[in-house]
Every structure is written in structure tokens, then in C-alpha cells.
Amino acid sequence: MADAHSHAGHDHIWADDLTHNQELVLGALAHADGPLSAYDILDRLRDDGLRAPLQVYRALEKLTERGLAHRLESLNAFVCCADADCHRTGSSAFAICERCGKVEEFAERAIEKRLQDWSKGTGFVPSRMTIELRGLCAGCAAA
Ligand SMILES: [Zn+2]
Ligand SMILES: [Zn+2]
């Protein structure tokens, strides 16, 4: 079960049945300005008692499995989910700014549908669909 949850003035996707470590990891992602690698997360959570990389990896694995966090393949880093609908569809798209590091999650149903149709047509069974756009965000492009 996942809901939009308002926390410290911003919204992100949360669940109320997380383990303590999962909460810590998701919290770190939710309060970061950009994507974090597993080691960035470990660094931030050392004072909270998370010391072993394995604890972070396990939490990340569960969170990404449930769609509460996403792995950005091209950066090998993680962000928290910003789109409650992506749990339903199992697909997500990200626009990654290469200058300021901002990541925007969005859903593009038309592309998703084309990829699903292609999969159906070829008999390929996708387990995950991640679209990553890299470039400049509107702010950086205008600067
Ligand atoms: Zn998402
Ligand atoms: Zn930018």
C-alpha cells in the first residue's frame, strides 16, 4: 500500500509498513536534492545507525521492488518515487538534468503503450520499463 504523503512541506510517496531501515533510506532519498548512490545514502545514514552497505542495498531492493524508489540505470543512483501512478503501471520515465542534477519523474502513457504493444507483438515479457532522458532542465536550458 502506498500513498502520497506530505512531509516537511513536500509530497512524496510513502508506505506505512516499512521496516526501520527502509524508512531511513526512503527518507534520505526524499530529502535529497538529486539522485543518491547507495554509498551517498550510507554516508547520510551513518549517524542513524546504518553502517553496512548490505543494509542499504537490502532496503533499496525492497523499495525499488515496490516502486517507492527507482534506480536510474544511467547514473547508478536512486530517487524516491514522485508519481503514485507508476505503481499501477510499473513503468516510469525520468528527465535527468546533466547540469544541476535535478530529476523529474513523469508518466508518458503513449510511449508506454507503444512499448507494451511492441512487447505483446514480439512475445517479450518486460519486468520493468524505465525511460531516461538526459539533457538540461528548463531552468538550466534557459540560463
Ligand atoms: Zn515512480
Ligand atoms: Zn538543471
Describe the structure.
The protein is of the alpha+beta class and 143 residues long. The protein folds into two domains: 3-80, Winged helix-like DNA-binding domain superfamily/Winged helix DNA-binding domain (Arc Repressor Mutant, subunit A), CATH 1.10.10.10; 86-142, Ferric-uptake regulator, C-terminal dimerisarion domain (Dna Ligase, domain 1, 2-Layer Sandwich). Helices cover 38% and strands 25% of the residues. A three-stranded mixed β-sheet has the order 6-5-7. Strands 1-2 form a two-stranded antiparallel ribbon. A two-stranded antiparallel sheet has the order 3-4. The longest helix is centred in the C-terminal third of the chain and has 14 residues, at 109-122. The model is unreliable at 6-10 (pLDDT under 50). One zinc ion binds next to helix 6.
Number of domains: 2
How many individual β-strands? 7
Question: What is the CATH third-level topology name of the largest domain?
Answer: Arc Repressor Mutant, subunit A
- The helix content, as a percent range, equals 25-40%
**Strand composition percent:** 25-35%
Query: How do the helices and strands follow one another from N- to C-terminus?
Result: EEHHHEEHEEHEH
What does the largest sheet look like?
Answer: 3 strands, mixed
Termini distance? Answer: 41 Å
The CATH architecture of the largest domain is Orthogonal Bundle
C-alpha-based Rg, rounded: 16 Å
Strand order of the largest sheet: 6-5-7
The CATH class of the largest domain is identified as Mainly Alpha
Helical region count?
Answer: 6
The global form is globular
Low-confidence stretches: 6-10
CATH superfamily of the largest domain: Winged helix-like DNA-binding domain superfamily/Winged helix DNA-binding domain
